Amino acid sequence: MTIDASFPPGAVPRKRRQTAAKWETGIGHALMIFVSLLCVFPIYWMIVTSLRSESEIFSTSLWPNAADLENYRYALSAVPMVRMLVNTFIISIAVTVLQILTGILAGYAFSRWKFRGSAFIYGAVALTWLVPLQVVMIPNYLLVARLGMIDTLGALILPHFASAFAILLLVQAMRSFPTEVIEAARMDGAGHAEILWQVVVPNLRGTIASLAILVFISTWNEYFWPLLLSRSPENSVVQIGLQMFITAEGTQWGPLMAASTMASLPILLIYLLLQRQVIASFMKSGLR
């Protein structure tokens, strides 16, 4: 019996495992690149279509023969897009600030104070998260109508004053906050307000930032509630403006894609600027 002395014992299986690992890594990267291209391609096609002329709007080429901004000029003149973008931005910022503020206050109360009925109230808040928007849409509409707020920006903000999702997320984050730090602050003479705003909130920046981004994007993409309350384009949001390019006579694809690009730019910029913080905070808070 002869032994090949050029390979030490165990060298061949280790080399095979390394080769298999390289193949698995390469296949995984190839799949991720393919899925990424599938996700990015609709955005690329929307931008390219917005630059096409009407005669080549249904062309399958990857780039228009003569790119121009005529669809953007038409979209801005046919619909008050700038006013709608400003309205959408104001509403999204207001809803985000209100939901974060009410979530922080409610989260601190549920996580640090024990009072009679707290478990029942917390359960009731959790149950409201399971109620579909369509169920509460009509009662909210009647309430807003009786307040005389139809066709106003305040009517688009008022029903989103607080969010069960924000409260539940911040309650869990504050319950996992170290009690030793809070007790140390209390021994230094800090009250509940100082503990909340100077100790707890600064240490939950990642969770609050991820929640704020989620609320902002969700509010920016809201469609049904503005559709129910808006009566004039000047008091409406950009999602309603997109619908105005779809008429009974046909769809104006070029201006529609131009308006969709303008409506998507703020969200894309937010993600590009904050993507590392978004991913890190999502992993820290357990959101998927």
Short description:
The chain is mainly α and 288 residues long. It is 71% helix and 1% strand.
What does this structure look like?
- This protein has 288 residues and is an all-alpha fold.
- Helices cover 71% and strands 1% of the residues.
- It has helices spanning 11-50, 70-78, 81-112, 118-128, 133-146, 153-157, 164-175, 179-187, 192-203, 205-220, 224-229, 238-243, 253-285, and strands at residues 246-247, 250-251.
- A two-stranded antiparallel ribbon has the order 1-2.
- The longest helix has 40 residues, at 11-50.
- The protein is flat and about 75 Å long.
- The N and C termini lie far apart (58 Å).
Distance between the termini: 58 Å
Strand content: under 5%
Considering DSSP H and I runs of 4 or more, what fraction of the residues is helical? over 70%
What is the subunit arrangement here? single chain
* Rg (C-alpha, Å): 26 Å
Structural class from helices and strands? mainly alpha
The number of E-state strands comes to: 2
Largest sheet at a glance? 2 strands, antiparallel
Per the principal axes of the C-alpha atoms, what is the gross shape? flat
Listing every helix as H and every strand as E from the N terminus to the C terminus, the arrangement reads HHHHHHHHHHHHEEH
Mean pLDDT: 86
Low-confidence spans: pLDDT under 50, at least 5 residues? none
Placed side by side, the strands forming the largest sheet appear as 1-2
Number of helices: 13
